[in-house]
Design brief:
single chain, 268 residues, alpha/beta, Rossmann fold, seven-stranded parallel beta sheet, two-stranded parallel ribbon, 9 strands, 53% helix
Amino acid sequence: MTLTAVITGASQGIGRATAYLLARKGYNVVLAARQHDRLEAVAGKIQEQGGQALAIPTDVTDIQQVNILIEKALETYTQVDVLINNAGICMTAPMAQTSLEDWQKILNVNLWGYIYPIHALLPHFLERRQGTIINVGSFGGKMPLPHMSAYCTSKYAVTGLTETLRLELEPKGIHVCGVHPSVTNSDFLERAVFRGEGDNSNQRIRQQMEEMLKSPLASQPEAVAEDIWNLIKSPQAEIVVATGAIATNLYRLAPNLTRWLLQQSIKQ
């Protein structure tokens, strides 16, 4: 039987690249994202190339929509073998400029948007005693980043969710893996929030991020998709992607130095 993967945040960036790759590998792919037109475009391209794709517009912060996503996936393909939680938003702002509404939005998408699909699909995995859950986190879930308290909180939570679920589910035949990219050169800036002290600060922060995305330090969606594929083929605890591995290793080995360097970057 052809294997099936459900991918959230599949209309752009890492999710789209992963959908194309898995379709080329022969998977049925169930695509979830809020933007219907972009989602249909991804599905259409896969189908034109002979693959099987089902586009289901879904807001991952809405449990009812997520339940419908999983129900339709199972109705169409009978079984789901891989869940890739990828939907997310980025926010750069000092704590003083981060409202409670900002916190709720970040945590709803970046954390509850992972919990809901896992909760909906887990009974199916447990019944079959097999399945793979891959949570796309961030190197910001392995180390602190300046002016990203809300974002890093959500991503540290994803890391904790992933590691704890692995302990619980591995004995039951279910693999739980994490992939942690650095800043990724994708379309995420469309939804990213930048907030500083005044409009000029907001624009400066956005420009710095745009420059980072163009630099060799940025992860590429296709490279992250390859790492996701490697986790599906050969499950392991986690992969920290590209330059993110350098940064997180530095933080692990020399936390005081790393914190000092990060603090200096804020002052510039």
